[in-house]
Design goal:
Strand content of chain B: 25-35%
CATH class of one domain in chain A: Mainly Alpha
Number of strands of chain A: 4
Strand content of chain A: under 5%
Radius of gyration of chain A: 23 Å
CATH architecture of the largest domain in chain B: 3-Layer(aba) Sandwich
CATH topology of one domain in chain A: ABC transporter involved in vitamin B12 uptake, BtuC
Number of helices of chain B: 17
Oligomer: heterodimer
CATH architecture of one domain in chain A: Orthogonal Bundle
Strand order of the largest sheet of chain A: 1-2
Strand order of the largest sheet of chain B: 6-9-10-3-11-12
Largest interface: A-B, 34 and 46 residues
Number of domains of chain B: 2
CATH superfamily of the largest domain in chain B: P-loop containing nucleotide triphosphate hydrolases
Distance between the termini of chain B: 63 Å
Chain lengths: ~400, ~500
C-alpha cells in the first residue's frame, strides 16, 4: 500500500494527467479520420477501437498482454537510454537480433533440460541484443559518433543479418516462417491459460490466448529498471553521464564505460523483448524473414514517450498501445481499408507521444486561466516564460 | 522629470521565495546606474522583469514617463532596452556579423544583404572602440571579445537603455579596464546603463548612482561619490565586512603536491600549452598561480586533476606518483578541485542540490549500501552543508541546480569540495561571481583549511585575491612559470609586469 502511495505522488499524478490528455487528443484525431474516410460507419468504428482487445473477450485481453510484452521491453530500452542521455533508435535491430538468438537456441539446443531451455534462449536473446548495441555504444564513447546515426545503421544490418541467418538455419520454407521452437523452449503459461481463453461451444474445448509468463517477466524487468535508475549508485552514475558528461568525468565517474553500459543495457532489453515475443509455441508469432524493420522496435519510441520514460509508466503505455492496435485490427469487420486503419492507429500513437508536450503546456494553460481570473479582479496575469539561466546549453561538443 | 526608466513598486514572487518585494528603481538619461546586492538578492530577477522575461506580480514600469507593459524581450527591444546576459546568448558557429544581425537581418527580396549591416557594424565598433573582426567565428574569439559582440548587438539595435548583468565576472583585469572605458563612452553618448554587479571597486570606478538590494528588498539608492566602499558593502550585506582577511604567518611543513616538469601539448600546434612546469605545495600554505587568462593555467589544472593527460612530467601527491591515475583515484588520495567552469564541470545542472552535493562521495559507505543509495543520510548530509555554507535556494535540498543563482551554485561546489577534507585543494577562481560576503566567507574557509595543515593551490585572475590570501605567488606566462613572488614584499605593479611577460626570473627553480 505504501509503495502504491509513493508511486502516486503529486508529480506522478500530473504526468499521468498529461498522458491521458495526450491520448484523448489522439483518439479525437483518430475519430476525425474515421469520419473523413467512412462517415456512416465512423461511430461504430470508433467504438471498436475503444473496445480494443475486449472485442473478443478474455482471449482478446490475453492477446493485448501478449503483444504488450515486447513493447514494454523496447519501450524500456528507449526510455532507459533516454534517461541516461542517449537516443536509442536501434531497438528494431536489437529486437530482431535477440529474436533470432532466442529462436535459434529454441530450435537447435534441445539438449538443454526442460525448465532451463527457455531461460537459456531468453538469456541468449538479451546477450545478443546487448552485443548489437555495444557497437554504437563504443563508437559513441570513444569516437563521439552520434548514436542516432549508428543505431539506425545497425537496424538495417541487424534486419538483413537476422533474415539471412533465419533462412540459413531455422527456416520452415513451406510456411515461409521460422520454425516452431521446441516445446521446452516455449515460455510457460504460468496460470494465464486459466484466465485468458474463450470457450468453444459447450464441449469444454477452449480457444487459448497466446499470452504467457513473458508479461510477468516484462513487468518484473520494468520494476528492476525503475529501482536501478532511481535507487542505486549505478543509476546515479548513468544519469549523471546523461545529463553532463564533463561533470561526470570531473567527479571521477568512468564516463566512457557508463555510456557503453547504458547502450548495452538498452540493447539487452530490446533483445529480451524479441525473445519474449517469439518463444511462444505454434500459435504465437514467427520470424517472417522479410525485409521490414520490426515494428515493435520503432513502437518502443512512442511507448517510451507516452510513458515519459518512467519504467512503471512504460508498462501502462505499452499495454495501451497494444490495446489500441488490436482494436484497429478488428476494424476490418467494417468497411475500412487496411491502410486507413494503419493511419488511424498511427495517428493515435503519434498524438500519444506528445504527452511530454502536454505536460509542459498543461500547467501553463492552467496558470493562464487563473491569470485571466486575476485580471478580472484587477491583476496582471502571472506567467513565467523561462528562467534567465534556462538557455544554457546542455553540452557544446 | 528626466528619468528614462522608472520601475515602481515591483513585486515578483516565485514558489518559496519573494524575489522582489516592492522595489523602486529610477534610471536617469546618460547615467551609469549600478545595481548592487548579494547573490540571490533579486538583481537578476528585477532586470529580467525590465527585459520582459518575467511579468511582475505588482508594480508598473514607465518609459519616459509613459506606463508600458513589457510582455516579452521583443517588446523590450522596441522600447530600446537591450541586455548583455551573464551567460552570453551567441551562436558559436556563426560569425560575429551574423550574430549581431540575428533577428534584425537586412534583406532584399528575401535574400540576405550583409553589406549595409557590415558597414553599420564597422562604423559602430569604430565609434565606441569595440574592435572586433566581423568575420571571426564566435567559437574562435575570447570571452572578452564575445562580450563586445553582445554590446554591439545592443548598439546595432539602437538600444538606449543597456543592461549589463555581471559583465566583469568572466573578464580578465585588462578586459575589465577596457569595458569600464567603453561603458563611460556609451554614457557620454547619452546611453543609460544599468550595471549589475557585486564588485564595489567597479561601482566606485564608473557608476554615478547605485541602488542596493538585500534579500529581495530595496535598501536605498545612493550617489556613489558620497559613499565609501565599506558603507556600500555594509548596506549590501547588512553587517560589516572585512576586505582583508586576517591571517597568521603560514607554517608550511612537508610537501603534499609535487609537480615535476609537467608538459601539456596542443593537438594543433607544436607549441606547448604548459611547458616544463615544476613546483611544490606544502602542507599549511596557500600557493597561488597568477596570470592573465589563457596562459596555460586551465590546462595545468586539467593535467593535475586528470581531466586531460599530461605529455611529460610527474604529479605526486604525498610522494605517490599520480600522473597516470584515474580521476577517482586522485580524489580518494585527497585531491579536491573547485573547477573553473561550474556549468561544464562543477555541477550536473539537472540534478537536485543534494544530488550535486554527493557528486564526489556517493560511492562511500556513508551514502550507499550494496549499491543502493541511502536517501535519508544523503538528505541529512546535504541539509548540514546547506546550513553551514548558507546555500540559498527555492526548495532546499530538492532544488534543481539549474534554477539556483550563480553565486549559490558556486557555494554548492565550494561546500562539496572543502567538506571532502582534502589533502590538497586545487581551487580555480573559487570566488568567481560571488558577492563580498560570500568571498569573505570562502577566503576564511581557505585560510582555515590552511591552518589545519592542508595544502592549497589557488588559481586566480583577481589580483586582490592573489595578494590577499596567498603565501607564495607563482606567475604563469605563456605556459611557463616565470617568477615566484612574496605577496608581502611585492607590489601590484611588479606582479602585473610579470603577468604581462615583461619580466622573468633567471630560470628560478620555483620550488
Amino acid at each position: 500500500m505504501k509503495v502504491l502511495r509513493k508511486l502516486l505522488d503529486i508529480r506522478g499524478f500530473n504526468n499521468a494527467t498529461s498522458s491521458v490528455v495526450a491520448i484523448s487528443a489522439g483518439l479525437l484525431f483518430g475519430f476525425i479520420i474515421l469520419l473523413i474516410s467512412n462517415a456512416p460507419q465512423a461511430f461504430d468504428g470508433f467504438i471498436i477501437i475503444l473496445k480494443g482487445g475486449f472485442s473478443t473477450g478474455a482471449k482478446g485481453m490475453g492477446q493485448v498482454l501478449y503483444f504488450a510484452t515486447p513493447l514494454i521491453l523496447t519501450g524500456l530500452s528507449v526510455g532507459f537510454a533516454f534517461k541516461t542521455g542517449l537516443f536509442n533508435i536501434g531497438a528494431a535491430g536489437q529486437f530482431i537480433m535477440g529474436a533470432f538468438a532466442a529462436v535459434y537456441i529454441g530450435v537447435k539446443c534441445t539438449f538443454i533440460p526442460a525448465p532451463f531451455h527457455w531461460m537459456a534462449a531468453l538469456l541468449a536473446a538479451a546477450v545478443v541484443g546487448g552485443l548489437w548495441a555495444l557497437i554504437p555504444g563504443v563508437l559513441k564513447a570513444y569516437l563521439n559518433v552520434h548514436e542516432v546515426i549508428s543505431t539506425i545503421m545497425m537496424n538495417y544490418i541487424g534486419m538483413y543479418f537476422a533474415n539471412f541467418m533465419v533462412k540459413a538455419t531455422v527456416y520452415d520454407s513451406k510456411k515461409a516462417l521460422s520454425m516452431n521452437v521446441a516445446e521446452s523452449a516455449v515460455l510457460p503459461k504460468a496460470g494465464l491459460d486459466k484466465v485468458f481463453y474463450n470457450p468453444i461451444g459447450s464441449s469444454g474445448a477452449v480457444d487459448l490466448s497466446t499470452v504467457n509468463c513473458g508479461i510477468y517477466i516484462a513487468v518484473g524487468v520494468a520494476v528492476i529498471m525503475y529501482i536501478v535508475l532511481n535507487k542505486t549508485t549505478f543509476g546515479y552514475e548513468l544519469k549523471a553521464c546523461g545529463f553532463n558528461r564533463n561533470a561526470s568525468k570531473y567527479a571521477g565517474i568512468n564516463e566512457k564505460r557508463s555510456i557503453v553500459l547504458s547502450m548495452v543495457i538498452a540493447g539487452a532489453l530490446s533483445g529480451l523483448g524479441g525473445g519474449l515475443l517469439y518463444l511462444s509455441g505454434a500459435s504465437g508469432r514467427h520470424i517472417k524473414a522479410v525485409d521490414v524493420l520490426a515494428a515493435e522496435g520503432f513502437n518502443g519510441i512512442p511507448v517510451a514517450l507516452l510513458g515519459l520514460s518512467n519504467p512503471i509508466g512504460i508498462i501502462f503505455s505499452a499495454i495501451f498501445i497494444s490495446y489500441i492496435t488490436l482494436g484497429g485490427n478488428y476494424l476490418q469487420t467494417l468497411d475500412f481499408v487496411p491502410e486507413i486503419i494503419d493511419i488511424i492507429i498511427a495517428c493515435i500513437i503519434y498524438f500519444s507521444a506528445f504527452a511530454l508536450l502536454f505536460r509542459n503546456i498543461l500547467p501553463r494553460l492552467l496558470k493562464w486561466r487563473t491569470g485571466i481570473a486575476e485580471k478580472n479582479s484587477g491583476q496582471q496575469p502571472s506567467q513565467a516564460v523561462g528562467t534567465p539561466n534556462s538557455g544554457q546549453e546542455r553540452s557544446d561538443e | 522629470m528626466d528619468y528614462v526608466i522608472e520601475m515602481l513598486n515591483i513585486t515578483k514572487e516565485f514558489p518559496g521565495i519573494k524575489a522582489n518585494d516592492n522595489i523602486t528603481l529610477r534610471l536617469k538619461k546618460g547615467e551609469i546606474h549600478a545595481l548592487l546586492g548579494e547573490n540571490g538578492a533579486g538583481k537578476s530577477t528585477l532586470m529580467s522583469v525590465l527585459f520582459g522575461l518575467y511579468q511582475p506580480d505588482k508594480g508598473i514600469i514607465k518609459k519616459d514617463g509613459q506606463e508600458v507593459k513589457i510582455s516579452d524581450p521583443n517588446v523590450a527591444n522596441t522600447l530600446g532596452i537591450g541586455m548583455v546576459h551573464q551567460h552570453f546568448k551567441l551562436v558559436h558557429n556563426f560569425t560575429v556579423l551574423q550574430n549581431i544581425i540575428l533577428g534584425v537581418e537586412t534583406t532584399k527580396n528575401g535574400l540576405l544583404k550583409m553589406d549595409e549591416a557590415r558597414k553599420k557594424v564597422v562604423e559602430l565598433s569604430g565609434k565606441y572602440g569595440l574592435s572586433v573582426n566581423p568575420d571571426a567565428l564566435i567559437q574562435d574569439i575570447t570571452v572578452g571579445m564575445q562580450q563586445r559582440v553582445e554590446i554591439l548587438k545592443m548598439l546595432y539595435r539602437e538600444n538606449e537603455i543597456l543592461i549589463f548583468d555581471e559583465p566583469t565576472a568572466v573578464l580578465t583585469p585588462q578586459e575589465i579596464d577596457e569595458l569600464m572605458n567603453i561603458m563611460r563612452d556609451l554614457a557620454k553618448e547619452g546611453k543609460s546603463i544599468l550595471f549589475i554587479t557585486h564588485k564595489l571597486n567597479e561601482i566606485k570606478a564608473v557608476s554615478d548612482r547605485c541602488t542596493v538590494l538585500r534579500k529581495g528588498k530595496l535598501v536605498d539608492t545612493i550617489d556613489v561619490a558620497d559613499a565609501t566602499k565599506e558603507e556600500m558593502s555594509e548596506m549590501m550585506v547588512g553587517r560589516k565586512v572585512e576586505f582583508e582577511v586576517a591571517k597568521e604567518e603560514s607554517k608550511p611543513t612537508t610537501p603534499t603536491l609535487e609537480v615535476r616538469g609537467l608538459t601539456v601539448g596542443d593537438r594543433h600546434n607544436a607549441k606547448k600549452i604548459v611547458n616544463d612546469v615544476s613546483f611544490t605545495v606544502r602542507k599549511g600554505e596557500i600557493v597561488c598561480i597568477a596570470g592573465i587568462d589563457g596562459n596555460g593555467q586551465s590546462e595545468l589544472v586539467y593535467a593535475l586533476t586528470g581531466l586531460q593527460p599530461a605529455e611529460k612530467g610527474q604529479v605526486l601527491i604525498n610522494g605517490k606518483d599520480m600522473t597516470h591515475m584515474s580521476i577517482r583515484k586522485r580524489n580518494i588520495s585527497g585531491m579536491s578541485h573547485i573547477p573553473e567552469d561550474r556549468h561544464k564541470h562543477g555541477l550536473v545542472l539537472d540534478y537536485s542540490l543534494e544530488e550535486n552535493l554527493i557528486l564526489k562521495c556517493y560511492f562511500m559507505p556513508e551514502f550507499q549500501k550494496n549499491g543502493f543509495l541511502k536517501f535519508r543520510e544523503i538528505n541529512e548530509y546535504a541539509n548540514g552543508l546547506i546550513e553551514k555554507y548558507d546555500i540559498r535556494s527555492g526548495q532546499g535540498s530538492k532544488t534543481i541546480a539549474r534554477s539556483m543563482s550563480g553565486g549559490n551554485q558556486q557555494k554548492t561546489i565550494v561546500a562539496r569540495e572543502i567538506d571532502l577534507e582534502p589533502e590538497i585543494l586545487v581551487a580555480v577562481q573559487p570566488t568567481r561571481g560571488l558577492d563580498v560576503g560570500a568571498i569573505e566567507y570562502i577566503h576564511k574557509q581557505l585560510i582555515q583549511q590552511r591552518d589545519e595543515g592542508k595544502a592549497i593551490l589557488l588559481i586566480s585572475l583577481e589580483l586582490d585575491e592573489v595578494m590577499n590570501i596567498s603565501d607564495r605567488i607563482l606567475v604563469m606566462y605563456e605556459g611557463e612559470i616565470v617568477g615566484e613572488l612574496d605577496p608581502k614584499t611585492t607590489t601590484f605593479q611588479e606582479l602585473g609586469l610579470y603577468m604581462a611577460g615583461g619580466k622573468r626570473d633567471e630560470r628560478s627553480e620555483a620550488i
